[in-house]
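Quick one, C-alpha cells below. Sequence please?
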C-alpha cells in the first residue's frame, strides 16, 4: 500500500513540474522548520465484480416505477363482485363512489353497477382495469320436467269426486263435514274456526266414496280457498239460513266460477227459529247462483249440520252430480298431484298433504314439487294410518321431502333421484335468472330517472359560470354528503322487526298476505325478518335477539328450554291459536312503538283587569289583578298569557293570592293577583290568562287489516 501511495504522490508532483500549472507559493515545499504540508490520498473501494484496472463509473440510480394493481372487470358486476376483484371490502367500494352521482343509500352488495361506475371506482382506488376474457357461455339445456300427454280414454276408470266445502266463517262447514264422517273435528278447532285445509275421505252408506276438502272461511285465508277450488270437482257452498250471503260467501262463489266448478248449495242451520232459507236463495240469485226453485240448475238442500237433518240427501245430490260429470282418472303411469298443505312434523320432518290426480303413488316413488323433491318413505291417511298406495282422488300425507314445498305446487313423478336433482337445480337457476332480469329492469328505470333529473339540473344551470354552477350544485347536494357519527340526527324511523312461525305453509302464507296490506309505514315500519313452518327454535330466538324483534307463532309451540332462553334474553313470544287474535296483538305491539300524543284540557280562564307593582325585599314584581271568568285556576297547573290572538307566554305561576292570602285555587267570579315566572313580561288590561293541564294519550296504529 505504501508503494502505491508513493507512486500516486510522485506522479502527481511530476505532473505539476512538467508543463503543468505551478503550485502556488503556499504550496511550495519548505525547510523542515516551515509549515508541514499534509496530503490525504483517497482510494476508492473496488466494486464487487469490477476487474482490476477497470475505471470506476458511477451509474445514476433510477427510481423504480410503482406498478398499479390491475383489476379484472366485466359487464354487470355487483358491488360485492367488484370488491372481491379489487381485493377490498365492500365499504371500500362505497367510499370510492362517494360524492358521485351514485345514490349510496340504494347500493346493496348484490346491486349491479354500470360500466362507468365500475371504472370510476377502480380509478379512484389508484388501480387500473382490464377487461376479463370473454368466455363463450353455453346455453343451458332445459332440464325441467313436463306433464305426460293425456292418457288413452280406454285406460280411464271411474274415480271418486273431490268435493270442497266453502262458505263464510262460522256458517257450519266443519260441523257439516263432522256430521258426514261422524268425528269431532269441530271440537278441536280453536274458537270453532277452521284455520287450515283438512282433507278427508268419507264412505257413504250407499258405498260411494267422496274426498272432502274443508277450507277456512275466515277472511285471512283467501289463498287457501282459491287452492281448494282449483283442485276440486264439486263445490258445496254452505250458507247459514239465519245469516244469509256474506263477504266470504261471495268470494267462494267467485273462486268456484273462476275454476269452472259446479256448485251445490247447502242451506245450513235450518233448525233455528230465525232461519229463512227462501231469503238466502233470493240473495244468491243476485250473485248468479240460481237454484232449481227459481228455474236454475243448481241444487239447494236444506240441512242442519248440528242435528244431522238431510245430510244423506246432500250426499246423494253430490254423488248424482258426480255421475253426471262422469269423473274418470288414470291409475297408471307417472304420478301427478297437487300439494294442498305442507308442514314440519317433529317426528316425520317435512310433511305434505296432497291430492293424487293421476297415477298411483307408492312407497319409494321420487317426486318433484316446485324446487323441492322427495323419495316417498311413508304415506298416511286422515286417521294417521299407514297406506301402501294412493290412486286418483285420494288425499294422503307424504313423508320423505328433502325441503318443504309450498302449498299449491304441482307434484310430478320422475324416474330417479338424479333426475329430481336436475329438475330442482334447473328451476332454481331459472328463478335466479328471472330475478336478475327484474333487478336489471329496476336498475335501468332508476338510471333513466336519474339521468333525466341530472340533465334537467344541468340545463337549468347552463346560463351560470362554472364557479357559480359548482357552488349551486354543492348547495343542492349538500344534504347528500356523509356526516360524522356525531353529526347524524337522532330521528330514526320506528321499526318493528317480526318473526312469523306457523304450523303449516298455508297458515304462514295467510299471515304474510295480511301483513302485505300494512299501510301505516309512516307511523312505524313493519319488517318481517324471517318466516317459516314449525315450532319456535333456538335459531328464531337468536334472530329475534339480533334484530330486537318479536316472535309470533300460530298453532305452534315453544318447549320449556326455548321459553326460558327467550325470557333470559328478553325476547317476547306471542303464541296464538286464532289468527285474528295474533293480528290484534301485532297491532298492539305496533301501537306501543308510537310516542304518545299530548292532549290539552282547559281548566279555567281569567281576564286581566289591572296591573300593579309589589315590592318584595329589594325587587319590584309585576302583578296582574284578574277575575276568573270560566272554570277555576289551579296554581299547580300550567298557564298561558294571550293578548288578542297571540300567545305571549307559557309557564307556571310564582304567586297566586286572593285578597292578602296565598291560595291554591280560585273559582269562577273571584278576583285574584297573579305573578308569572317571567319577570320581564308586561301585562295589559284585557289580556287573558288560561289555566290548562296536559295529559298523554297512547297512539294507535292506523292499519286496518280488514277483519
Amino acid at each position: 500500500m505504501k508503494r502505491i501511495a508513493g507512486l500516486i504522490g510522485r506522479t502527481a508532483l511530476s505532473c505539476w513540474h512538467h508543463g503543468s500549472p505551478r503550485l502556488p507559493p503556499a504550496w511550495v515545499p519548505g525547510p523542515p522548520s516551515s509549515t508541514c504540508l499534509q496530503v490525504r490520498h483517497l482510494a476508492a473501494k473496488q466494486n464487487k465484480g469490477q476487474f482490476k484496472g477497470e475505471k470506476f463509473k458511477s451509474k445514476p440510480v433510477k427510481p423504480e416505477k410503482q406498478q398499479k394493481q390491475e383489476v379484472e372487470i366485466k359487464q354487470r358486476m355487483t358491488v360485492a363482485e367488484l370488491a372481491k376483484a379489487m381485493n377490498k371490502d365492500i365499504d371500500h367500494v362505497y367510499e370510492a363512489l362517494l360524492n358521485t352521482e351514485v345514490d349510496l343509500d340504494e347500493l346493496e352488495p348484490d346491486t349491479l353497477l354500470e360500466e362507468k361506475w365500475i371504472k370510476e371506482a377502480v380509478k379512484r382506488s389508484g388501480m387500473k382495469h382490464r377487461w376479463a376474457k370473454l368466455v363463450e357461455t353455453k346455453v343451458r339445456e332445459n332440464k325441467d320436467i313436463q306433464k305426460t300427454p293425456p292418457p288413452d280414454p280406454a285406460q280411464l276408470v271411474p274415480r271418486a269426486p273431490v268435493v270442497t266445502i266453502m262458505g263464510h266463517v262460522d256458517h257450519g262447514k266443519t260441523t257439516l263435514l263432522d256430521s258426514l264422517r261422524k268425528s269431532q273435528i269441530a271440537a278441536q278447532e280453536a274458537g270453532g274456526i277452521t284455520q287450515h285445509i283438512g282433507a278427508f275421505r268419507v264412505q257413504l252408506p250407499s258405498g260411494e266414496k267422496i274426498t272432502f276438502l274443508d277450507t277456512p272461511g275466515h277472511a285471512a285465508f283467501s289463498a287457501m280457498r282459491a287452492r281448494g277450488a282449483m283442485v276440486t270437482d264439486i263445490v258445496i257452498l254452505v250458507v247459514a239460513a239465519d245469516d244469509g250471503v256474506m263477504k266470504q260467501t261471495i268470494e267462494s262463489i267467485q273462486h268456484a266460477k273462476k275454476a269452472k266448478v259446479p256448485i251445490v248449495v247447502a242451506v245450513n242451520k235450518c233448525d233455528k227459529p230465525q232461519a229463512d232459507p227462501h231469503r238466502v236463495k233470493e240473495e244468491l240469485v243476485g250473485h248468479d247462483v240460481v237454484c232449481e226453485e227459481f228455474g236454475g240448475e243448481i241444487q239447494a238442500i236444506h240441512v242442519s249440520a248440528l242435528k244431522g237433518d238431510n245430510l244423506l240427501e246432500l250426499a246423494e245430490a253430490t254423488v248424482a252430480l258426480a255421475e253426471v260429470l262422469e269423473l274418470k282418472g288414470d291409475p297408471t303411469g307417472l304420478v301427478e298431484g297437487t300439494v294442498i298443505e305442507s308442514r314440519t312434523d317433529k317426528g316425520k320432518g317435512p310433511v305434505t298433504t296432497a291430492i293424487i290426480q293421476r297415477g298411483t303413488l307408492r312407497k319409494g316413488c321420487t317426486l318433484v314439487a316446485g324446487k323441492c323433491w322427495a323419495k316417498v318413505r311413508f304415506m298416511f291417511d286422515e286417521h294417521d294410518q299407514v297406506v301402501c298406495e294412493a290412486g286418483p282422488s285420494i288425499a294422503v300425507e307424504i313423508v320423505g321431502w328433502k325441503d318443504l314445498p309450498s302449498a299449491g305446487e304441482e307434484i310430478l313423478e320422475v324416474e330417479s333421484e338424479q333426475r329430481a336433482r336436475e329438475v330442482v337445480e334447473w328451476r332454481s337457476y331459472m328463478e335466479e335468472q328471472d330475478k336478475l332480469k327484474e333487478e336489471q329492469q329496476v336498475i335501468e328505470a332508476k338510471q333513466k330517472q336519474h339521468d333525466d333529473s341530472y340533465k334537467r339540473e344541468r340545463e337549468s344551470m347552463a346560463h351560470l359560470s362554472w364557479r357559480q354552477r359548482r357552488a349551486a350544485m354543492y348547495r343542492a347536494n349538500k344534504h347528500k354528503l356523509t356526516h360524522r357519527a356525531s353529526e347524524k340526527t337522532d330521528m330514526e324511523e320506528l321499526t318493528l322487526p317480526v318473526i312469523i312461525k306457523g304450523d303449516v305453509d298455508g297458515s304462514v302464507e295467510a299471515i304474510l298476505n295480511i301483513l302485505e296490506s300494512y299501510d301505516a309505514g309512516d307511523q312505524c315500519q313493519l319488517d318481517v325478518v324471517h318466516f317459516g313452518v314449525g315450532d319456535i327454535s333456538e335459531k328464531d330466538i337468536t334472530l329475534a335477539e339480533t334484530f330486537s324483534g318479536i316472535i309470533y307463532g300460530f298453532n305452534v309451540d315453544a318447549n320449556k328450554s326455548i321459553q326460558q332462553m327467550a325470557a333470559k334474553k328478553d325476547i317476547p313470544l306471542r303464541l296464538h291459536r286464532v289468527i285474528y287474535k295474533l293480528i290484534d296483538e301485532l297491532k298492539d305491539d305496533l301501537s306501543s312503538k308510537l310516542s304518545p300524543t299530548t292532549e290539552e284540557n282547559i281548566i279555567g280562564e281569567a281576564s286581566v283587569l289591572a296591573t300593579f307593582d309589589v315590592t318584595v325585599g329589594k325587587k319590584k314584581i309585576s302583578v296582574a289583578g284578574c277575575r276568573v271568568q270560566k272554570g277555576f285556576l289551579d296554581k299547580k297547573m300550567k298557564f298561558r298569557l294571550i293578548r288578542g290572538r297571540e300567545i305571549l307566554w307559557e309557564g307556571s305561576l310564582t304567586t297566586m293570592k286572593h285578597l292578602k292570602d296565598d291560595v291554591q285555587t280560585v273559582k269562577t267570579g273571584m278576583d285574584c293577583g297573579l305573578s308569572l315566572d317571567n319577570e320581564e313580561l308586561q301585562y295589559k288590561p284585557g289580556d287573558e290568562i288560561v289555566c290548562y293541564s296536559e295529559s298523554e294519550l297512547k297512539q294507535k296504529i292506523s292499519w286496518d287489516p280488514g277483519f
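Residues 1-58, 183-197, 217-221, 482-491 have pLDDT under 50 and may be disordered. The longest strand covers residues 597-616.
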